[in-house]
């Protein structure tokens, strides 16, 4: 199996400039955020929505990667990890806590090995909204006045006091 990886610019300001052809022929998605940067976690919903809007459905294997584990020292980062695990669970994504700077680039290899294994499973191709049993339905997210999702970790949303 040959895997071609496309690394998109993760910052929010680049999201709308992602052109249509980036979304064509996508067979797997790895969402990566920086555990030391709460905004990068908060923006995951936008990227996930973006993928949905480009018809990348639940049949596409997805992984959620919480990177820079070597820098986790704050309570905020620990809370983000808990919330990220939960987010991955409700969206049926594999979850990884990684460090690209760890001694062996901890877990990084296994992200792609697991994704490749899942692709092998779905290759051949399981049609539309996946017949994997136990695949959870998309949760209903309430969008708050701030434009952020109410059940999303975000240090900018009203009433949030993580720190
Ligand atoms: N300590 C630590 N630093 C990391 C880790 N991963 C990346 N970095 C550092 O974080 C900085 C940004 O890394 P990039 O690989 O450019 O991040 P990116 O995800 O491509 O960023 P975008 O342009 O937003 O897509 C660099 O200085 C990296 O060396 C990690 O696991 N631990």
From TrEMBL:
Example GO molecular function term?
GTP binding
Q: The organism sits in which domain of life?
A: Eukaryota
- State the Gene3D superfamilies in the record: P-loop containing nucleotide triphosphate hydrolases
InterPro entries registered for this protein in UniProt: P-loop_NTPase, Small_GTPase
One matching Pfam family, short form? Ras
Q: Which UniProt keywords apply?
A: GTP-binding, Nucleotide-binding
> Which family would the database say this protein is a member of?
Belongs to the small GTPase superfamily. Rab family.
Q: What is this protein called?
A: Ras-related protein Rab-33B-like
Record organism: Sinocyclocheilus rhinocerous
What lineage, starting at the top, does this entry show? Eukaryota, Metazoa, Chordata, Craniata, Vertebrata
Tell me the gene name. Answer: LOC107752905
């Amino acid at each position: 199996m040959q895997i071609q990886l496309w690394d998109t610019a993760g910052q929010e300001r680049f999201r709308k400039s992602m052109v249509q052809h980036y979304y064509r022929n996508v067979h797997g998605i790895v969402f990566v955020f920086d555990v030391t940067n709460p905004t990068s976690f908060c923006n995951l919903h936008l990227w996930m929505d973006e993928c949905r809007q480009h018809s990348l459905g639940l049949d596409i294997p997805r992984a959620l990667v919480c990177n820079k584990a070597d820098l986790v020292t704050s309570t905020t980062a620990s809370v983000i990890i808990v919330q990220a695990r939960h987010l991955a669970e409700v969206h049926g994504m594999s979850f990884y806590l990684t460090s690209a700077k760890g001694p062996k680039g901890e877990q990084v290899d296994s992200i792609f090995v697991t994704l490749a294994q899942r692709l092998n499973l779905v290759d051949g191709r399981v049609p539309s909204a996946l017949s994997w049993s136990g695949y959870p339905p998309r949760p209903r997210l309430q969008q708050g006045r701030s434009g952020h999702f109410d059940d999303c970790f975000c240090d900018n949303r009203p009433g949030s006091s993580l720190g």
